[in-house]
Amino acid sequence: MLRPNRWYTYTFSTFCAIFFAACQLKTPTADLPTFNIPGYGAVFKGDTGFIIKRTALPYLLSAKLIDTSIADWAYTADHDTIGKYYHLNKDSGYLACILTYNKDGDEHLLLFEIDPDGCVKKTFQYYYGVSHCCWSAAFDGFGRLGNYFFIRACATSAAFCGSDLYLFKTAQSQDYQYPILEWNWVGSDAADPRMHQVFSVVAVKGDSVTVYYKVMAGVEAVLVDSFDVKYRMVDNRWVANDSSGLKKYQ
Which residue of 19, 183, 197, 232 lies most exposed, with the fewest beta carbons within 10 A? Predict the structure, then answer.
């Protein structure tokens, strides 16, 4: 029988304990040496990049961002893309987002900010429907539009899939935002009179957002409507100037 490497386990646990103590003791004026959590340098480098499960596990586990004892992690292959990150600046570290699971096995997105030493500064959970049906790539849930970051959350139900965009400049909770409709699909087949798709092009210019919508009906995707919606920030939430066009298709 193979025995666990107790020395490695003890050393790894001790290092993590020292690291977290350093993260907790840091102050804006503290003159402390740089502590890099295990795996940090292997994941976060350059301006932006994708997060691969195999490469990221040492860091995500050490930073206590995920719990792989949750059974659903077993269905995620080692080579799967589970997230993406962006470098903020030399003083602020990185903003990242990954797919993960809560204790009930519910899949969701975890948005987190880390400082240049790898210490976790903020974490926010973003929930969505039962699948990420609105993504067009392996990981399409986090990105940038102009001066803003976005999270693309999929809405799902019977014969429905849609995508909502959360736009923000700094990491914040899902609970305090109004998402912007990006796309939806309604209807199960050609016989369903509700069948339509709403497509959009999102244009960000400075701090203004304009979304150009087109509505296509039926299997033949016939254009039946088009309209523009301007969004403005009110109390840190995006609000449509005129939502009458949207209400018909939400």
Answer: 232
Length of the chain as a residue count: 250
Residue owning tokens 């798709």: 197
- Quick: pLDDT tens for 221-234: 889 999 999 999 88
pLDDT per position as a tens digit, 81-103: 999 999 998 778 999 999 999 88
3-state secondary structure the chain: CCCCCHHHHHHHHHHHHHHHHHHHHCCCCCCCCCCCCCCHHHHCCCCEEEEEHHHHHHHHHHCCCCCCCCHHHHHCCCCCEEEEEEEEECCCEEEEEEEEECCCCCEEEEEEEECCCCCEEEEEEECCCCCCCCCCCCCCCEEEECCEEEEEEEEEECCEEEEEEEEECCCCCHHHCCCEEEEEEECCCCCCCCCEEEEEEEEEECCEEEEEEEEEECCCCEEEEEEEEEEEEECCEEEECCCHHHHCCC
